[in-house]
Amino acid sequence: MKRILSVVTLSVLMSACASIEEESNSVTVKALQHHNWELTHIDGELISVPNKQQKPRLEIGEHFTANGMAGCNNFFGQAALNENGAFRIEKMGLTRKMCPEADMKIEQVMTEVLSSWSEITLTPKNMILKSPTHELTLKLRDWVN
């Protein structure tokens, strides 16, 4: 009887620990790596780009490198998560092409948010980055399904 009680107690404790781990909202490097996100909203507003133009995107690769397109120009750098779970891209490099004004406005907001520490929320289909001044919503658009 004691043996059965011990097994049941151990099972309950193990399942409780597993559910606590699942409920944790912390974002990890592993959860972000090897994914591609497409920008859909800035400050809750749907962005629009001409049909032939690629939407701004963020890709996190091997060794937590980041690259993408911010509106018109391409960017690259080293992604980072701090001890509070905030996200940013350190030492961001950016190409400098001439771009239409509407594209530049999107690009300025996107690069500002990505290069500063932003609160990150990750769902199975979206990433939300909140900086003190703007909020970006990106939809998961991995290259391979």
UniProtKB/TrEMBL annotation:
Domain of life of the organism encoding this protein: Bacteria
Classification via InterPro entries: DUF306_Meta_HslJ (IPR005184), HslJ-like_sf (IPR038670), Hsp_HslJ-like (IPR053147)
Entry keywords, A to Z: Signal
A Pfam family matched in the record: META
All copies of domain DUF306, residue ranges: 31-139
Signal peptide limits: 1-20
PROSITE patterns reported in the protein's UniProt record: PROKAR_LIPOPROTEIN
Protein name (database record): META domain-containing protein
